[in-house]
């Protein structure tokens, strides 16, 4: 039988470093998700307001800015042993 979780030790230091380096982008994407959820839930109050749309646009713009920043300054990848 095949083992479903062959790496039970958890993520390596290099993997944790990569997650930490990308965390600003992950957080920005979560802000977009929150704004999208608010848009879906806005149907209960007559539809999205101008503020809801602004929040979504700002969150999407923030994702773009963070992605550009990460692309402009790539992290030094540590060798995985």
Structure write-up:
This protein has 81 residues and is an all-alpha fold. The chain has a domain at 28-72. 64% of the residues lie in helices and 0% in strands. Helix 1 (13-41) packs antiparallel against helix 2. The longest helix has 29 residues, at 13-41.
Give a short overview.
Pfam families: DUF6284. The protein is an all-alpha fold and 81 residues long.
What attributes characterize this protein structure?
81 residues, mainly alpha
List the helices and strands and how they pair.
Elements: H1 13-41, H2 50-72
Helix pairs in contact: 1-2
Helix and strand run = HH
Overall pLDDT metric: 87
**Oligomeric status:** single chain
The proportion of residues forming helix, as a percent range, comes to 55-70%
Ends apart, CA distance between termini:
27 Å
Q: Counting H and I runs of at least 4 residues, what is the number of helices?
A: 2
Biggest sheet statistics: none
Overall form: flat
Tally of DSSP β-strands: 0
Report low-confidence residues grouped into runs of 5 or more: none
Query: Which band does the percent of strand residues land in?
Result: under 5%
From the helix content, strand content and strand pairing, which structural class follows?
Answer: mainly alpha
What is the radius of gyration? 18 Å
């Amino acid at each position: 039988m095949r083992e479903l979780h062959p790496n039970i030790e958890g993520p390596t230091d290099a993997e944790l470093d990569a997650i930490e380096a990308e965390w600003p982008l992950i957080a920005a994407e979560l802000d977009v998700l929150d704004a999208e959820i608010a848009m879906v839930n806005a149907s209960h109050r007559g539809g999205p307001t101008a503020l809801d749309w602004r929040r979504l646009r700002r969150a999407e713009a923030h994702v773009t800015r963070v992605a550009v920043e990460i692309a402009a300054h790539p992290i030094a990848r540590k060798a995985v042993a």
